[in-house]
Amino acid sequence: MNRSSRHASKGYGVLEIADAAVKAVTISDGGRTVLCVIVATVLAGCGGTTTTSDAGGDAAADAADSGPSTIRTVTAGANYTCAVTDAQTVACWGEDDVGQVGDGADQLANVPKFIGALAGVVGVTLSPEHSIAHSCAWTNSGDAYCWGDNEYGQIGNGETSSTFVAAPTKLVGLPSIAMVACGGLHTCALTTAGTVYCTGEADRGELGIGAPDGGAPPPLVSTFTAVQGLPGPATAIGAGDQDTCAIVSGAVYCFGLNVDGRLGDGSNTARYSPTQVQGLSGVTAVAVGTMHTCALSGGQVYCWGNDTHGELGDGKNNTTSSSPVLVQGVTNAIAVSAGAFHTCALESSGAMKCWGSNALGQLGDGSFVERDSPVLVAPLGPVSWMAAGELHSCAVLQSGAVECWGDNQWGELGNGQADGGPQQTDVPTAVVGLP
Questions:
Q1: pLDDT tens string 360-375
Q2: Who contacts 349 (Cβ-Cβ below 8 Å, separation ≥6)?
Q3: Per-residue DSSP letters for 120-132?
Q4: CA dist., res. 257 & res. 286, Å (int)
């Protein structure tokens, strides 16, 4: 199935969410300090020896390490979800039509399934694509593994195949990996040295490899290839449906499709090489959604791109912006995550706020009302980690519970219900079967 026909079947232009809420924090792992990043809805990056420390990062680390929870992070993708435990194992649940859950069962999982082949995991990233989704994880030894669909070379093993990769497969040919980000049909990896490599669909510029002789990039690349044009070592990355961003020295650089100004450079022109987002400095996190992107700087959240459902959070619904605008009503933010047409942020107090589309209850405020400015997720205790998925959201509470809300057609809420059970919930509901 090609990309355009998949999008048409959804009833709107582009598939949602892209992974990539990215927040740099420092977390201690067995006595060793490692870099950790929330990506897209994803924990993306504990590994290597590089550390990043700031006020927001310290607060996020303290929150993640407090309380009795044995779940460190939760990551939300397109119709499925994964969690990383303190024991560095991975459990996933939800849609599994191309093996994206990783347990080899190839069937819907409405409760968490542990992936026995993975150990020492410190980060997981999930694809925003339906029906051709892929997933990746990386470990405290600098290795990374991917599984699921590989039709566009997004696994990076030199192959393209309509037969999905059922079990986690180790990535080869890359230096020590600090984090990985799954885009729609592409994957990017950040090394501990700060170099970014990408593989998969390339024709919109999402791999950042430029274009030969001023032409267009190739349709796809099946091996990891270095991004060209970043001004220095990157400290975090995020991948969207057809675009990618990286943080370099506190500035954000993005490349790929630029419909509705999602690259933030003041234009709507696609970029095959990195272009700097306007007016931002001191950025510690970047979250790449389907048609919008957000960044965290100095405890404040800035967003740009499409605003059809209020996902920019500035109180001005349907005001597309090709440069960053300040989100209203969020203070002392320590993390941000962009879903399909909604966005969530975590404050240092442990409060979680969301805004944008709420058609399936993904804002978690007890309603199905669209919001163009942030609302508090309630009832919900203090949060230590959070993620905005395509049409659902999840949180790890300081109390030790994991709760999700929003769409549940494919069991992505992990509450044991789907197909005939409630299809969505507008308030947090407990995930079952986790330690």
A1: 999 999 999 999 999 9
A2: 332, 382
A3: SEEEEEE---SSS
A4: 17
